[in-house]
Every structure is written in structure tokens, then in C-alpha cells.
Specification:
The complex is a heterodimer of chains A (318) and B (668). By secondary structure, chain A is an all-alpha fold. Chain A has one domain. With 668 residues, chain B is mainly α. In chain B, 69% of the residues lie in helices and 3% in strands. Chain B has 25 helices and five strands. Chain B has a two-stranded antiparallel sheet. The chains are: A mainly alpha (318), B mainly alpha (668). At the A-B interface, strand 1, helix 3, helix 4, helix 5 and helix 9 of A face helix 16, helix 17, helix 22, strand 3 and helix 23 of B.
């Protein structure tokens, strides 16, 4: 590994953080336009974060140390997971120490801590959010892992760089398992990022009582860190789908400045397109009631399982 | 080393006798526990030396007693040495915890004498190199732990638990006896050496079945798990830790010894029943645990899940080994043994934590706990570490073994047979599902006991536990973290074990850059727990630093946001039951035939509203209840035989004799 690879890795790590609020801003803007509203500026999420961070933090009287430490740990694990996803360049140093299963598990750690944080103060809202979040996770996480299995069986590797390289190579083609895995992954992304129809990120209304209910007690800098973590998570999922299913344009480590620039541009375009599709889907559908969500996520699980079984049956020893 | 280990077992038995007298005073029991901790630490050290010794053969100690005309062989090979390390490490730390517990014990004379005997029995099972001493150790382990289960004999619940346990344990021992009898064949060579040499042909499948029944019932495979959530919580907490965290591992050892070592080369279809049962065990175990509100029973049910995960690894290893895929078999087997190690650490830790909570509050029911993170900060930190580890989340150790199991599952398209190829993805999905449900289960366990507001006076006036217990729990939490971030060393020390069991070992790991583990190939998969851990720490520190520099430092404490409904009652919090309600609705309506009934009073009526939840234990209803009814009915019928005259009895004896003679005659 050369120094430039580490530099690119560092740039990538910083970039996912820097661009995550922008992605939220862009999706919100598109959503507003689709609803024929003017919508806030795409820079609004940055301003919100800045505003929150300058405000005093109000913490419930009986909150423990866990309540105050959790935002930082949640943010850190999400950020580390995001840094492991190749964005504009693949084959980077971190890919060789953690694979796709680790990314899923790191997000699991973040969710575990968030659910605990929701329970810490001891209000019914926090408990409600935590309980439902863990229910959704109990279906979304295996669905995600099944999609991961499918991809790894194709590429013969659980590393994202290898999977991405395989998808670019001659071996990849249109395949029913791949399509099923894509659908599963999209459903999981919607569920995990608390988007419509599973949850609504735009409100603090009691009716959307999953993600927002867990963080109801947070304010000030703690809330800012949690909001940033949520933005990074959305970016992570979109980058992941982009990296695996549209690997074109992504630079390979050590490819030179021009390739990196192309990679950067390609990544930006992919994110914009995926973000647009996500919002389009969101505006076209109504929010489900809570007990419909397990069926929705169960579809993802079944599709993922089907994709894997089809592969196990059709491919002989990869 | 073997002499040392054998004398360690002898020493434990002596301690057991001394315990009878020492238990009269708290200082005496403390001394016994301290001696147990020391002996176990010594045993663990000796076994570790044996495990790491390069290419050491089996050196066995021969004791000229045993079966008539027989001898007893004791010794450690790589397999038993690995399990001896795991078991004695956990037992040593648990004994350290028990030193603190001794001061609070109510009836020490019912616990202290049996405790060293229990550990001695487990060690004897591992040391045994012949069937006779194996079974003696097995029975010593069962009986000593039975005595410990019944130590708090005043509650009828515990007496029932002990009865169920005794029946299941004797049934299990009987099947193991049959398995060894079949293996030894008509010549009756009961030493493992002789069995390996003169194995009777064609007994493999029956031995597999008997091992699944015998070792599986001890380990808690569904549907033979019924005794486990009754018996494990009934014992004092340090014994629960040993039973759940350690004794189940001895059962796994028994299975591995019988199936991988003694039964001969496996056929591919052996893996099918093992994988099926293991997957069902993993999923049902965690669902049972989620429905449970009693902290110790929750942990016991969760042991069932982990045993399922271990057996998934073992089943995969069988499938791979039978098809000659030795590297894959080594991976699956190493994953299983790694999980054995991990589970012994975090399950002991969690049971000790629940014991600390039980001592501080007198409550096991999570609905009566809450807010303990403020009253018992050290216990809370250790318990949290255990919860993260058992939920298979990085950077702790539970994740590593599940990751390895997933890697083994991803190798299974190489299998030539169709049945396992179709079965394994489903097993993978079940494993993924149970891992996610385990996280939900431990959010519930930690959240309800340690977070929120205290639900009872007992919980709000709890005090931190004693120093010994704190040190024991923290050291296990540290070991969980260390095994999670430095898994390469654990995997390397398992090399000799996989070589013995499946005839191959993984490539050496500890020389890898960043201490990562690379089970097969660097381009296939790699994981560096250390790197991930350091990254998380750095990222969290950087974030905290930036926020400190940029953000407002102001912090105001205020009442929690009540949405306009001021309520002071902690009863309005989410409870364990309400936390699990969505999962109960989604999964439980089939598995447990869960029914909810809401009774609301009419408008204007001030009567209380009621929510009734009914859960049925389907396994008990389908399997155990009919057996119990059958036994009861048969006993009713046979009861008449008690009141016959002497002539009738003589006739019966004569008839029985003739019948037996006819059977023997026709058999020949």
C-alpha cells in the first residue's frame, strides 16, 4: 500500500462526512419540487447542524452516561462503516481489513446503541421507537445479509472492492439472482434509513414513531451528531448500491488524478440519480402502518433468500 | 501435563470433601472458592501449554482401577486441551466471583461441597481417554450440578426443575452409554485408542443419532432443551454461570469426541440432521428468550440459541469433511470452537451480572428492575460489554465467530450434494435472523434492567456489588474485547484441534498485517478487529474533540419531554412485555400460538383495563406433554401389580424368565 492510497482513503473518509448533509439537502429539495413546493436551500442541512451544535444541550434529569456517550459512538461506527464503502475509488487500504459483512455488523452496533439510548430516559416514546426499530432490524438485517451472500457468491469474495471489480469484469451479466438482490437491498435501504413508507424522516410527529421517537430526548450538539450520523448512513447505502450495481467510472487505487476526478464525477452523478429515484418512490407511496412494515421487509428477506438459493443451485463451485 | 491435569482433578475432589466442613463459616467457603479459582487457573495454564506444544503426542496417565479387568486412561490431546482451556478459564473467573458471593450465601453447605466436584466432573470428562472414565465424569458432572440446582429446594419451581433435569440427564447418559457400547463392539475395547483401532463397522449413523440425543440434551438442542431454562436459573448465580457457560461446552465436547473422532469418517448426509436441528435451535432459542421476562431464564434460553450456532458450525464441518473439502471443514470447525470459547466468556459474564442484580435487588423479573446503570455502574458496564458481545456486534468477540461461520456458509456451493446445497442458504438466513433477534433480545435485557427509571423500590435502592464480583465481571468483559480484536491468536491456537478433528488447519493468522484474520484468501475476505476497534475509537475521539471545540458547552438538566402529559409514574415506561410485543405479534403467533386479549371497561366505567397475553410452549405441548401423559397412564395401570399375592408374583417371575430364555434362544 502506498501513501497515495492512504491519502485517497483519507479523502474518501472525509468526503463521505462532508457530502452527507448535501445529499440530504438535495433529496429534500427534489422532494419539495416534486410536491410543487419551493423547498429550502440544498445547504439547509449544514445550517441546521451548525445551529444545533451552537445551542445548549438539554438532557433529561435521569439520563445516564450512556445517553451522552451514545451519539458519538453511533456516529463513529456509522462513519467507519461508510469509510469502508468504496465511493469514487476502489481497492483502497481499508477494504483489506473489513468486508461487507463487517459493514452490516457495524451498522448493527450503531443501531444497538441507538436503541439503548432510546430506552435510557425511560419515557414511553423512546421505548416505542427502540422496540419497533429492533423489530424492523430483525428482518432488515438478515435481508441485507442475504443480499450480501448473493453478491459474494457471484464475486467469490465478501470484499466490496472485489465485488465491484467482478461486476465490471466480463463474468457479470444480467442475472435473476442479481436483480432479486438489488430489490432486496433497495427495500432494506428504505427501511434502514427511516424513509417512507417505513418511517418519515421529515417529521417529529408521534405517528412516525420509529427513528424520531428514539431520538426525541436529544437536543443541541447530541442531536446534531445523531442527525449527521443519519445523513452519513443514507449516503452509505446509496454509495453501496452504486458501488455494486453501477461500478462504472469508479477509479482503481493508484490510477492517477484524472481517473480520480472522473470517479468523483461518476459518484456524484450516481448519488444524484439514486437520490432522485428514492425521492420519486417516496412521493409516490403512502406511509405504511407499523405492522405492514414487517411484511414489506419480509419480502426483502424472502427475495434475498431466493436469490441465494438460486445461486447455490445454479452455480457449481465458485 | 497430563499428570498435572489429573492431579488437579484429584485436588478438586479433595476440596469437595473439605467443603463439607469448610462451609460452616463464610471464611471457609471463601477459601474453598479461592482454591477452586487457583486450581482452575492452573488447569487452564497446563492445558494451554499442552495445546500450544508443537506436535506433542498424546501422553496418557494410566490408573489401574476402573472396569473389572480394565484400566483408566487419562490424558489431554489437542481437542480435550482446547476445551480444558475454555472450561477452566471460565471456571476460574467464576470461582473468583463466587468468593464475593460466599459472604451472602444463605445455605452454603448445600452449595460449597458440590461446587468443586462439579468442576472436577467436567474436567474428568475432558481428561478421559476411555469410555468408562468419560461416563463417570459425565455422571459426576450431572449429579453434582443436580445437587446445586436443588440447593434452593424450598421453592416448588426449583424442585420441579431439578426433577426434569435429573430425568433428562439420566436419559442423556443412557444414550451415551449405548453409543460407547456400540463403538466398543463385542470385544469391549473401551479405551478411545482401542475404539479408534477396532471400530465396529457401520455403527457411525447410530452413534451420530445417540450423540445428538445424549450430548444434545445436555447442550440444549431443540427439542431436548426443555430442562435447561428451568434448571440453569434455579441454581445460585455462579453455578448458573458454570452450567450455562461451561457445562454446555462439555456437552459440545462430548458430541465432537464421539462424532468427529470416534465414529469414523462421516457420510455427507450426517450433516443434514445436525444442520436442521441446529438452525431450528438457533431460531427457537432466541425467540423463547425474547418472550422471557425473567433475566436468568432469558439468559438460559439464549444459551440454547448459541448452542444452535455452534452446531451449525459443526454441521458444516461434517458436510465439508465428508466431501473432502478439508480447508473449508477446518474453517467451519474453527468457527464452532471459537464460538464455544466466546460463549463461555460472555454467558458466564452475563449470568454473573444477573447474579449481581439479583443480589442487589432480590429481583430476577425485568418488569421490576430499571435504572440500575446509575446504582450499579460497574456491573452495568460489564453487562453491557457482554450484551454487545453476545449480540455478535463488532468489535467484540461474538461477531468474529459468526463472521467465520458466515464465511464457511459462503463456501458451501462447493459441496457436491444437492441436499446440503439447498439447506445451507436457509441455515444462513436462519443464522442471520437469529443474530438480529439476539440484538433485539439484549437491547431488551439491558434496557429494561439497567436503563430507564427504577420500576420498584428494590431497584431504586440497589447497591453496587462487591469487589471480587466486579473484578471477575470486568476481566471477562476485557477478555471478550480482547478475543474480538485479536482473533488471530485464538484461531492459531486452534490449529492442532482442527487438525485432529477434520484433518486440516487454517493458515497461520497472527503474522497477518494489522492482526487481521484471513480464513481462506486475502482477496476473498479479511477482518481486522483491532483495526476496526481503533478506527471507531479514533472517529469517536475526533468527533468528540471537534464538538468540544466548536459546539456550545452548555448543558442543562431538565425533566424528560412528556408531550404534554405530565406523569411521574415509572409504570408508563416501556416494559419488557411491551418491548417484545411487536416481535411477539410478528413471530410469536405461529411459534408460540400467542394470543392477546384486551378488555376495556365501558366508557364512564372506572374499572381497570386488562391486557392478557397467552403463550404456549409448543415444543412442550407437542413432545413432552404426551410423554408425561403416557407415563402417568402406564404407571396407573401398573399400579395394580403392587397388590398381587405371592403366587401371582411367582408366576410373573417364572413367565418373565421363560420369555427371556426364549428371546435369548431365538437370538442366537
Amino acid at each position: 500500500m502506498s501513501y497515495s492510497d492512504w491519502l485517497i482513503q483519507l479523502a474518501q473518509t472525509a468526503l463521505v462526512l462532508g457530502l452527507a448533509p448535501l445529499l440530504s439537502g438535495v433529496t429534500r429539495k427534489i422532494r419539495a419540487r416534486l410536491l410543487r413546493r419551493q423547498g429550502p436551500s440544498i445547504l439547509q442541512p449544514y445550517r441546521d447542524l451548525l445551529k444545533l451544535i451552537r445551542k445548549e444541550a438539554v438532557v433529561a434529569e435521569n439520563a445516564s452516561w450512556l445517553f451522552r456517550a451514545a451519539p458519538y459512538l453511533i456516529f463513529a461506527t456509522t462513519w467507519v462503516a461508510a469509510a469502508l464503502v468504496p465511493t469514487f475509488a476502489s481497492g483502497l487500504p481499508l477494504g483489506a481489513v473489513a468486508d461487507l459483512i463487517v459493514i452490516v455488523a457495524l451498522l448493527g452496533t450503531a443501531r444497538f446503541l441507538l436503541a439503548l439510548a432510546g430506552l435510557d430516559v425511560g419515557t414511553s416514546f423512546g421505548g416505542l421507537g427502540s422496540s419497533r426499530e429492533m423489530l424492523f432490524a430483525s428482518l432488515a438485517e438478515p435481508a441485507m445479509l442475504m443480499a450480501v451472500f448473493t453478491l459474494s457468491l457471484f464475486a467469490g469474495s465478501t470484499q466490496l472492492s472485489s465485488i465491484s471489480a467482478y461486476m465490471l469484469g466480463p463474468g457479470a451479466g444480467v442475472d435473476i439472482s442479481l436483480a432479486l438482490a438489488l430489490v432486496a437491498l433497495i427495500i432494506v435501504s428504505i427501511g434502514e434509513n427511516a424513509r417512507i413508507p417505513v418511517d418519515n424522516p421529515a417529521t417529529h410527529l408521534e405517528l412516525t414513531m420509529v427513528h424520531e421517537a428514539m431520538i426525541l430526548e436529544y437536543s443541541g450538539r447530541h442531536l446534531a451528531v445523531l442527525e449527521a450520523a443519519a445523513a452519513v448512513k443514507l449516503l452509505l447505502y446509496l454509495s453501496l448500491i452504486a458501488c455494486v450495481f453501477t461500478p462504472w467510472g469508479t477509479a482503481v487505487a493508484g490510477a492517477g488524478v484524472l481517473a480520480y476526478l472522473i470517479g468523483l464525477l461518476a459518484w456524484a452523478i450516481k448519488l444524484a440519480v439514486l437520490g432522485f429515484l428514492l425521492v420519486l418512490f417516496e412521493t409516490a407511496i403512502a406511509k405504511m402502518r407499523v405492522f405492514r412494515v414487517p411484511e414489506f421487509l419480509g419480502i426483502a428477506l424472502m427475495l434475498g433468500l431466493l436469490a441465494t438459493i438460486l445461486l447455490f443451485v445454479s452455480k457449481v463451485s465458485r | 501435563m497430563s499428570q498435572l491435569a489429573a492431579s488437579g482433578v484429584g485436588f478438586l475432589l479433595v476440596l469437595s470433601v473439605l467443603g463439607i466442613f469448610a462451609a460452616r463459616r463464610a471464611s471457609g467457603s471463601r477459601l474453598i472458592y479461592a482454591a477452586c479459582a487457583a486450581v482452575c487457573a492452573g488447569l487452564a495454564g497446563a492445558a494451554l501449554l499442552r495445546l500450544l506444544a508443537p506436535a506433542a503426542g498424546l501422553e496418557s496417565v494410566e490408573i489401574p482401577v476402573g472396569l473389572p479387568l480394565g484400566r483408566t486412561f487419562l490424558g489431554l490431546d489437542a481437542l480435550s486441551a482446547a476445551f480444558a482451556v475454555i472450561i477452566n478459564l471460565a471456571a476460574s473467573i467464576v470461582s473468583g466471583y463466587a468468593i464475593g458471593y460466599a459472604a451472602r450465601a444463605r445455605e452454603p453447605q448445600r452449595v460449597v461441597p458440590f461446587y468443586p466436584a462439579f468442576i472436577a466432573g467436567m474436567n474428568l470428562v475432558l481428561l478421559a481417554q476411555d469410555a468408562f472414565s468419560f461416563l463417570v465424569g459425565w455422571e459426576l458432572m450431572s449429579l453434582a450440578s443436580w445437587a446445586l440446582v436443588v440447593s434452593e429446594h424450598r421453592s416448588p419451581e426449583n424442585r420441579r426443575a431439578a426433577l426434569v433435569y435429573l430425568i433428562m440427564a439420566s436419559g442423556g447418559a443412557l444414550t451415551l452409554l449405548l453409543a460407547f457400547g456400540l463403538l466398543a463392539g463385542p470385544e469391549g475395547g473401551y479405551s478411545f485408542e482401542a475404539i479408534r483401532r477396532l471400530r465396529a463397522p457401520g455403527v457411525g449413523p447410530i452413534v451420530l443419532l445417540l450423540a445428538l440425543l445424549g450430548a444434545g440434551s445436555k447442550a440444549g438442542l431443540v427439542p431436548l432443551h426443555a430442562w435447561l431454562p428451568l434448571a440453569h436459573p434455579a441454581a445460585p448465580s455462579h453455578v448458573s454461570a458454570l452450567m450455562s457457560g461451561v457445562m454446555t461446552k462439555v456437552a459440545v465436547y462430548g458430541f465432537v469426541r464421539l462424532v468427529f473422532d470416534l465414529a469414523g469418517a462421516p457420510a455427507w448426509w450426517w450433516s443434514v440432521p445436525v444442520l436442521l436441528i441446529a438452525a431450528i435451535t438457533a431460531l427457537l432459542g432466541v425467540l423463547y428468550a425474547l418472550m422471557e421476562h425473567d433475566l436468568k431464564r432469558l439468559l438460559a434460553y439464549h444459551t440454547v440459541e448459541n448452542i444452535g450456532i455452534i452446531f451449525i458450525g459443526l454441521g458444516l464441518a461434517l458436510a465439508f469433511e465428508a466431501s473432502g473439502l478439508r480447508a473449508a471443514a477446518a474453517l467451519a470447525f474453527a468457527a464452532a470452537i471459537f464460538h464455544v470459547f466466546n460463549h463461555s466468556l460472555f454467558k458466564s459474564l452475563l449470568f454473573m451480572g444477573s447474579g449481581a442484580v439479583l443480589n442487589a435487588t432480590g429481583e430476577r423479573d425485568m418488569e421490576h428492575l430499571g435504572g440500575l446503570i446509575r446504582r450499579m455502574p460497574v456491573t452495568a458496564v460489564a453487562f453491557l460489554a457482554g450484551c454487545i458481545a453476545i449480540s455478535a456486534l463488532p468489535p467484540f468477540n461474538g461477531f468474529v465467530s459468526e463472521w467465520l461461520t458466515f464465511q464457511a456458509i459462503l463456501l458451501s456451493p462447493q459441496l457436491p450434494q444437492w441436499v446440503p446445497r439447498l439447506l445451507v442458504p436457509a441455515v444462513g438466513a436462519t443464522l442471520a435472523c437469529s443474530a438480529a433477534l439476539a440484538a433485539a433480545c439484549f437491547v431488551k435485557a439491558f434496557g429494561m434492567s439497567f436503563l430507564g427509571r427504577p420500576r420498584t423500590v428494590a431497584a431504586s435502592s440497589a447497591a453496587e456489588t462487591d469487589r471480587f464480583s466486579q473484578i471477575a465481571m470486568l476481566s471477562l468483559a476485557l477478555l471478550c474485547l480482547l478475543a474480538g480484536i485479536l482473533p488471530g491468536f485464538v484461531l492459531d491456537s486452534l490449529g492442532a484441534v482442527t487438525q485432529l478433528a477434520v484433518g486440516a488447519k487454517l493458515a497461520p493468522q497472527s503474522a497477518q498485517a494489522w492482526l487481521r484474520i484471513v480464513p481462506i484468501d486475502i482477496h476473498r475476505s479479511a477482518y481486522s478487529g483491532l483495526f476496526v476497534f481503533v478506527m471507531i475509537l479514533l472517529a469517536a475521539a475526533a468527533t468528540a474533540f471537534v464538538v468540544r471545540r466548536v459546539a456550545s458547552h452548555a448543558l442543562r438538566r431538565s425533566p424528560a419531554w412528556d408531550c404534554g402529559f405530565p406523569d411521574a409514574s415509572p409504570a408508563t415506561q416501556y416494559t419488557a412485555g411491551s418491548f417484545a410485543q411487536p416481535i411477539r405479534r410478528v413471530f410469536g403467533s405461529v411459534v408460540f400460538r400467542a394470543r392477546e386479549q384486551v378488555t376495556l371497561p365501558k366508557p364512564g366505567d372506572t374499572a381497570v383495563a386488562r391486557l392478557q397475553v397467552e403463550l404456549r410452549d409448543t415444543v412442550w405441548d407437542a413432545l413432552y406433554a404426551p410423554i408425561i401423559r403416557l407415563v402417568a397412564a402406564t404407571a396407573e395401570r401398573l399400579n395394580r401389580m403392587q397388590f398381587l399375592t405371592i403366587r401371582n408374583y411367582l408366576t410373573l417371575v417364572f413367565a418373565a424368565l421363560v420369555a427371556l430364555l426364549i428371546i435369548v434362544g431365538t437370538w442366537r
